[in-house]
Specification:
The chain is α/β, with parallel strands linked by helices. About 40% of the residues lie in helices and about 20% in strands. Pfam families: Response_reg, Trans_reg_C.
């Protein structure tokens, strides 16, 4: 899942991004509304965590732009105000969910994952395929009933492949969904991560390489 965090309180923004990355999400961070508009013109995000009171361009205007573009991106709006009328107004603008500050990080993560599931065809919370069971919420993976310990990027790649339900996923798509924008697009990090993931999942291999196209399970 790829997430954009837009928050002008830099310590908070960086802390949220770090936490979401530990949950195997690819996260980009910006600190004002103008930078957010630039990012959404270039990158496809599953979820945007959007502070409402932003400098340069207000969060409401960023949200309106997302709606205007017809993007499938889901918006989780943050605000320091706990007033019900503010929350209603934010939802009417086009936000998909609303979370007042201060918030528990566990709740933020749960809401981001729930919104991420709504950007694609609905799938069950626990994904199962080829003897693999993956639980995104618990960050657990089992192969034929035996738990497999994965690093965050390995988990992220496996989740993307599991959600593709047998269709081929290119290396570029994996790079886009599992890594942030600072990753060198010419790196071999995808190939190396897939190799390590195959080894950890064991035999028989379930990740198939489709020459010239990508990978599938």
């Amino acid at each position: 899942m790829r997430v954009l965090v837009v928050e002008d309180e830099q310590l908070l923004a960086d802390a949220v991004a770090t936490g979401l990355r530990r949950e195997a999400m690819a996260v980009d961070v910006v600190y004002d509304g103008a930078a957010a508009l630039e990012r959404i013109e270039v990158n496809d995000y599953d979820v945007i965590v959007l502070d409402r009171d932003l400098p340069l361009v207000h969060g409401d205007d960023v949200c309106r732009k997302i709606v205007e573009l017809g993007m499938p991106t889901r918006v989780l709006m943050l605000t320091a105000s706990g007033d019900v009328s503010d929350r209603v107004e934010g939802l009417e603008i086009g936000a998909d969910d609303y979370l007042p500050k201060p918030f528990a990080f566990t709740e933020l993560t749960a809401r981001v994952r729930a919104l991420g599931r709504r950007t694609t065809v609905a799938l069950p919370p626990v994904l199962e395929r080829a003897g693999i069971k993956l639980d995104p919420n618990r960050r657990e993976v089992f192969r034929d009933g035996k738990e497999v310990q994965l690093a965050p990027k390995e988990f992220a790649v496996l989740e993307v492949l599991m959600r593709s339900e047998g269709t081929v996923v290119s290396a570029e798509q994996l790079l886009e969904k599992a890594w942030d924008e600072n990753t060198d697009p010419f790196t071999n990090v995808v190939r190396v991560t897939v190799m390590t993931l195959r080894r950890k999942l064991g035999e028989p291999a379930v990740i198939v390489t489709v020459p010239g196209s990508g990978y599938r399970i």
